[in-house]
């Protein structure tokens, strides 16, 4: 049986990427530190992906197993040795931590076989696979590095499926029915159900990140300020829905200009995503969607990059500035990033966060607009 090894047996791992490999006839070895999940995968050998919709629909995912990378290095190396695909859905900040064991697995594999291995990071981050590749190269000896060419391939990708935090301890995963997985390559690669191949990912990842994730972030941060707990409850407020639409018009104007997108088609894409956010069956928390605001306020992420790009292009960004202000105000004591931001604000004011985390000069027009909005919140 064909083999895939997937790092991160969480929501996207089990509910999306691992599930597609299983459906495509692969055995999937999940690598994770969550002992309970790994034990269950090995004991139960299957789970269900359940659709968040009125009509019950469930897919059984079989041919799965798990390895704990903290306890069983040999098991991880063995899984890498036999894999055709190596994927991750682990969170962008964790990629550097798993790179050493992936490098070790690749080095060992290169000594035994020249069969092709395709590495794809499935994270909400522009160029995530390139970043992972950089960390892997930092951990590889020169001999292995020289052998990578033509044998180990690295493809960037964009992943889109809303998967909330799961209730209870079952392996089953509740997901929205919609999904899109876009992979950038010009190689002829083994088919995977549900994978769309493109030769230029930039318009796809930016369209996704600056529509789905920007819109999501606006709802999460405004919802949190308004004391709401879920995305759909927050969006039931017409003023917040209007703010989401106006923000996505701003990111949309940039995307249309940058990538020559059809304006009407892009508007339909925005509308479709706002309907996805309204899915009450997902019960998706504002704390999950707003998680890790230090990452979300990064220069290339869903809030800052569309604002800086809009400003460069002479396009409006005031609604984006309000979203950035709301992100700065995200006050969740259980979120390490949010706690750090509140401490930074106390010590140096909100402009210090924008300078240090977002790379925006204190006297920049965007910073000044964000501060105006922050004070008005
Ligand atoms: N959930 C979504 O709706 C969604 C959609 C698209 C993309 N994404 C992206 O997918 C990625 C994963 O998100 P998620 O929602 O599945 O998160 P998640 O928290 O459900 O899953 C992450 C998994 O990684 C594991 N992990 C953490 N550190 C590890 C380590 N050092 N070694 C091995 N395993 C480790 C965790 O135990 C967890 O099982 C993120 O980049 C996210 O932005 C999420
Ligand atoms: O995963 P994050 O933290 O980058 O973003 C939170 C959500 O916006 C995200 O997980 C979406 O649900 C997902 O990107 C939809 O495809």
From TrEMBL:
Domain of life: Bacteria
GO biological process: mannitol catabolic process
Catalysis performed (reactions): D-mannitol 1-phosphate + NAD(+) = beta-D-fructose 6-phosphate + NADH + H(+)
InterPro entries per UniProt: 6-PGluconate_DH-like_C_sf, 6PGD_dom2, Mannitol_1_phos_5_DH, Mannitol_DH, Mannitol_DH_C, Mannitol_DH_CS, Mannitol_DH_N, NAD(P)-bd_dom_sf
UniProt-listed Enzyme Commission number(s): 1.1.1.17
Annotated NAD(+) binding sites: 4-15
Limits of the Mannitol dehydrogenase C-terminal domain: 200-377
SUPFAM superfamilies named among the record's database cross-references: 6-phosphogluconate dehydrogenase C-terminal domain-like, NAD(P)-binding Rossmann-fold domains
GO CC terms: cytosol
Listed GO MF terms: mannitol-1-phosphate 5-dehydrogenase activity
Alphabetical UniProt keywords: NAD, Oxidoreductase
Pfam families recorded: Mannitol_dh, Mannitol_dh_C
Domain Mannitol dehydrogenase N-terminal: start-end pairs: 3-187
Family assignment from sequence similarity: Belongs to the mannitol dehydrogenase family.
Protein name as catalogued: Mannitol-1-phosphate 5-dehydrogenase
UniProt source species: Planococcus koreensis
Recorded name of the encoding gene: mtlD
């Amino acid at each position: 049986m064909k083999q895939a090894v997937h790092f991160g047996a969480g929501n996207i791992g089990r509910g999306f990427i691992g599930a597609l490999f299983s459906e495509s006839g692969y055995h999937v070895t999940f690598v994770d530190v969550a002992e309970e999940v790994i034990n269950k995968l090995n004991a139960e050998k299957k789970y269900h992906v359940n659709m968040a919709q009125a009509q019950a629909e469930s897919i059984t995912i079989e041919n799965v197993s798990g390895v704990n990378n903290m306890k069983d290095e040999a098991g991880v190396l063995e899984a890498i040795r036999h894999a055709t695909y190596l994927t991750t859905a682990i969170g962008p900040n964790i990629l550097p931590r798993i790179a050493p064991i992936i490098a070790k697995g690749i080095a060992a594999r290169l000594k035994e076989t020249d069969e092709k291995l395709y590495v794809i990071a499935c994270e909400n981050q522009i160029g995530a696979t390139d970043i992972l590749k950089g960390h892997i190269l930092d951990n590889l000896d020169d001999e292995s590095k020289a052998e990578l060419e033509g044998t180990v391939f690295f493809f960037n990708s964009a992943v889109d499926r809303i998967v909330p935090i799961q209730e209870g301890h079952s392996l089953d995963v509740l997901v929205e029915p919609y999904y899109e997985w876009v992979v950038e390559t010009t190689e002829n690669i083994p088919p995977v159900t549900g994978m769309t191949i493109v030769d230029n990912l930039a318009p796809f990842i930016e369209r996704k990140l600056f529509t789905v994730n920007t819109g999501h972030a606006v709802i999460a941060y405004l919802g949190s300020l308004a004391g709401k707990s879920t995305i759909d409850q927050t969006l039931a407020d017409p003023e917040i829905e209007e703010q989401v639409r106006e923000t996505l018009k701003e990111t949309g104007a940039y995307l249309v200009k940058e990538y020559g997108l059809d304006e009407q088609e892009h508007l339909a894409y925005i509308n479709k995503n706002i309907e996805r956010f309204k899915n009450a069956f997902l019960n998706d928390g504002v704390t999950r969607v707003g998680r890790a605001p230090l990452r979300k306020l990064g220069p290339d992420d869903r809030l800052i990059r569309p604002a800086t790009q809009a400003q460069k292009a002479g396009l409006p960004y005031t609604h984006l500035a309000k979203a950035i202000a709301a992100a700065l105000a995200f006050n969740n004591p259980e979120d390490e990033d949010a706690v750090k931001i509140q401490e930074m604000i106390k010590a140096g004011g909100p402009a210090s966060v924008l300078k240090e985390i977002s790379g925006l000069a204190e006297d920049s027009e965007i910073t000044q607009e964000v501060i105006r909005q922050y004070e008005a919140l």
